[in-house]
Known about the structure:
The complex is a heterodimer.
Chain A: E1 6-10, H1 11-24, E2 30-36, E3 39-41, E4 44-46, E5 48-56, E6 68-70, H2 72-84, E7 88-97, H3 105-109, E8 116-123, E9 126-135, E10 142-150
Parallel strand pairs in A: 1-5, 1-10, 7-8
Antiparallel strand pairs in A: 2-5, 2-7, 3-4, 8-9, 9-10
Chain B: E1 2-6, E2 20-24, H1 28-38, H2 43-46, E3 57-61, E4 64-65, E5 81-86, E6 88-90, H3 95-99
Parallel strand pairs in B: 1-5
Antiparallel strand pairs in B: 1-2, 3-4, 3-5
Amino acid sequence: MAETHIVLISEDLAEKIRRHGAETYPYECCGALLGRDAISDGDVARPREVSGLFPIVNRREDSPHNRFSVAPLDVVNADKAAQAEGWDVIGWYHSHPDHPAKPSEYDREHAWPWYSYVIVSVQEGVPGKMTSWRLREDRSEYSEESIEIRSATTVKSKI
Amino acid sequence: MAVKVLIPTPLRPHAGGKAAAEFPAKTVGEALSHLTVEFTDLKKHLFTDQGKLRSFVNVYLNGEDIRYLAQENTATKDGDTINIIPSIAGGRGTASDARRFT
């Protein structure tokens, strides 16, 4: 059975993702998740953790209510922002306006393995359920990973 | 002629954890070919079964998209940098997509 992944995020950053989704409603929001990947090395073991966000302008002007697209330059800038803090881009978030927080077939076709893909559902402008997913290495389907939301606010945000 | 290829984070597990690799190459295609010979697992993520670059893979040479140059035939010179940039996209999709998950 495949290993279940966990991603940690502070309540503060989770709230910022929800708020971003509410602000751009009825269009989709998107952004990068910055942080550190899981470490499992002898006595040291910690899960993947989101430590900052890099909100991005949705470039899909033709169909922003059900699509998002990140420009290559924004991907590079997100990487630079992460590296400046000693982090990596560990995933991406986007909203599903008036739609469940589940990845679509379109999401799967455009996804990469390894990244965490966080989706927040925004129903009639009100953000709701938030989920996180990883594409399997063979690209066949997504596996849901657990989001552990922590109340600590010691993490930094780019917002 | 060494050309540097930057490997994006999601592909590093398939490249021995490396963030970059250098190869002697006269074109972008030649450099990418060396990359996928050294790290065979990368091939399925970068190329289709027909050997074409996947549409969701952006390749930049010294900051310029090779789609606007000579694509994989774009000439390279010593000290050039090839950046493989994942295309990030998605969205809630259509009503028919939604039915798959309900």
